[in-house]
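hey so i finally got around to running the thing on that chain from the lab meeting. sorry it took forever, my laptop kept dying and i had to restart like 3 times. anyway pasting the input first so we r on the same page abt which one it is
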Amino acid sequence: MMKKIATGILAIAATSAVALSLPSAASATTATATADFDDYSDYWGPVYAKQHLAKAQGHVDVAWDEEDSNEVQVTGRLYDLDDRDYDEGGKCAYVKFQAEDSDGDWSTVYTRKYCGSPGYKKFHFEENDVFTLRVKVCQVPEQGTFATKCGSWRELYSAEDA
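ok and heres what got predicted. didnt touch it at all, straight out
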């Protein structure tokens, strides 16, 4: 009986030692994987269109190469929450990203449309030399690109705050 108890205690101790060493290995892997994007990293969203019939959310990572050069990576999901049929006035989800450069000029750097309630579509894009990044979620007709029912702009990143 004592031999079984001792064997059980040793097995628990060995399992605990392995379990304690796993987070260290996982942390080292995570640190290596995110080392290129350690200047700024954050989750964003959810950001909604008016009436909450479309939304987007995701993650933004920024890595600075030099003092005035960076790379921004954005990943996310665009959700179509409008379950009405198109002949009933239903619309698709639409997300728009704009970037501001160091001169204060805004330009659209990425857009995505998704029709398919209920559901979502994943997206990913990269942009260089971004001073400020913002996002807006809207709705668009199934066969069109004119955005309506837009929510307000939401700032995702600013070099001033980083």
